[in-house]
Design brief:
Three copies of one chain form a homotrimer.
Chain A: H1 9-39, H2 67-80, H3 83-95, H4 100-122, H5 127-152
């Protein structure tokens, strides 16, 4: 059986987790747009305060940071610091031919940790709460990268 | 036929699109360097205003944000928020064995949307113009991720 | 022999390089945490100055940028601007079936260039020093992307 194939249940688990994480990351972009339109602010480029159908009454204050938009940007930056490395470590890990149960725990555990991280960050829970969810995801990436490295060496 | 192979024309289309997007992203880094050297500013680290052959007459003002550099940084950040997810969603989509024509439309459509997004952003078109190109690319990623997810489930 | 398999020594070299780069990137997140806890500052979210076991004596100044934390964030951003494109270009390059020696030079050369970039940035060497290491890595990505593109066309 080919490892990188939908016939391999470990790859199926990886594909499900990766696809959900792609959609989660893209949703952050859309949520940024929603917040900018909703609060009519948090824009970043000088041309964004030119009059358009979406922004009919522009003013200079719209270029100032708006915490309700900045919060989503920080959540998104956190995704950028994590998801590409999950994708890479996960792909290598699939290639090592792990047991299905372990792989599912790692892949789906990662997805759950990131979704909970989002909820904790979006609802402004104390730092320690979102740190716990972030740490779980980060350790899963480290585990898969180290396991792949040992498999390769 | 193996799906992940240059013998698969769908993979060839993916490889062409992904390679162009890699070069586009790397070009943003080089364009940032070009703008920093050209306008002698927009540096970010305290040590960047130490005297060197590239910066023979440094001064503290070089650490202030320079819109001509910041614009490229915003374009690059937009790439970081999009391209890694195109790479991942596209790879999964190749594995689902789609029709060649659909895959080419999605992959090359994505490339065109991102190049037009760059032109619109670089020339400071109104927000709605670059938003249209960004939206096309974003929807292509969403479509491929959802199609891969349904294929996996 | 399958190209994407641990039986292919070119893939093994890619896997080793990619796994090390994943760990390097994740280490930047942990280093940011270390610096924030060590210097009790450089936080970014309003809720981060609520009293918790990790931050027992919070104050508003902890939300101001702290250069010792910002430096790590800049290094990490540089990783985000480079590593995902190394992963993608490297994967395509493996698929082109290159010679083992060339591939090892490119993959391991990239790893070394990024580790030296980190040392130069972390110890605040002049801009030109870290620019040299960054340039080596960037050119390796460009070479692999172009080689893959020509192979595909």
């Amino acid at each position: 059986m080919e490892l990188l194939s939908f016939e391999n249940p470990v790859f199926v688990a990886y594909a499900i987790a990766a696809a959900i994480m792609v959609l989660k990351a893209v949703a952050m972009s859309w949520l940024t747009v929603v917040q900018m339109v909703r609060f009519k602010g948090g824009y970043r480029s000088p041309e964004d305060i030119r009059k358009t159908p979406i922004n009919p009454e522009p003013h200079a204050g719209q270029l100032a940071p708006d915490e309700r938009v900045e919060r989503i940007r920080r959540i998104q930056l956190n995704d950028l610091e994590n998801l590409p490395f999950f994708f890479m470590a996960g792909l290598l890990y699939v290639m090592t031919g792990p047991s299905l149960l372990t792989a599912q725990l790692l892949f789906y555990g990662y997805v759950v940790s990131r979704l909970l991280h989002f909820v904790a960050y979006f609802t402004a829970q104390i730092h320690d709460v979102r740190a716990i969810f972030w740490t779980i995801g980060s350790l899963i990436i480290v585990y898969m990268a180290v396991a792949s490295l040992f498999h390769a060496l």
